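Ticket #4471: structure export looks truncated?
Reporter: QA, pipeline team
Priority: medium

Steps to reproduce: submit the single chain below to the structure queue and open the exported record.
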Amino acid sequence: MNRRKKIKLKTVLFHFLFWISVWFFFYYFFSYNSSDTVYITTFSSCLLPITMMVTYFLVYFLIPKYLLTKRYFLFGLYSFYTLVFSSYIIALVIYGCLIFLLSFNVAVMPPMSKNFFFILVLVFLVSGVVSFITLLNHNFTTLSKNKELQNKILETQLQLKEQELHYLKMQIHPHFLFNTLNTIYGFALKQSLQTPEIILRLSNLLDYILYQVNKPRVSLKEEVLHIKEYIELEKIRFKDTLKVIFISDEIDENIQIAPMLLIPFVENAFKHGSLMDGFLHIEIKVTVKNNSLNFLIRNTSSEYEANQKGGIGLENVRKRLELNYKANYNLDIARRERWFLAELNISNLNFQKND
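Actual output as written to the record:
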């Protein structure tokens, strides 16, 4: 409440000082080639209330009600009425009050106060300047509010994006565990001696997931090593029925990528791939050139498996790609003869050192 009172007091004080300045402006203007200070003081004092009336009517009524609401015709019409009415009031004050009631001699009146057109222009000059400043202030305030609103919208969108990314990342844990635990379960049923080795490799993979998946970016080199670790895990399951060709460029440790972005493609190849001539064939190629990543994976697949959707894994990847890279990525998924192919291209990779 005290703050409102202070603002109101400052506004009143500002208006008071402004109109005092206008009065001195009138006095200076009408004193040109005249030394009749009594008449000039009286004339300026009579003209000031008319100017205030016209100005406040424009600023607090016509502009907000008609101009700012884009009712331009009515604004122009009522502005014209204001001009006519104020002209009548000025004429009444000059000729009615000053000349007849106060018995001022027209012959000795200052030359500037005899010109009715100059007087009218002076009044509307002040009103026009104030109106112009009001419009500028309104536009500035509107732009500031719009910018603040846009910032809030962007902030909200960013928070939603972060929440969605967090949700998508959290989906990776159960999806990956589901696929891997199925493998362990199968070996456990057979009482395989390789079950401990599988559990050990799984623990290494989970260690990577727990520490890396919550980061916005991870090293691409570490992501590729994670894929290799996963392939070694799957080799235990497939034994002699798996043929994997893995080709990768030498990757700079500073190149970064969204975490767990490539592994779903590899999981999908093992999960939905099918044997051809007694083998599951998987070919993976990772190329980094001109700050762009090309990830190509293909696996043998039957007609039935090729028509299956990727499930949570690939759908998750699509959403995360859209949120992280937008126009800087391209994902092609296709089937050619008995091969299922996925090719991902990402441009403008992050290039910075890990913390």
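Status: closed, not a bug. The export was complete when the record was re-opened. Leaving a note from the reviewer for reference: The beta strands are 218-219, 242-248, 255-257, 280-289, 292-300, 329-336, 339-346, 350-351.
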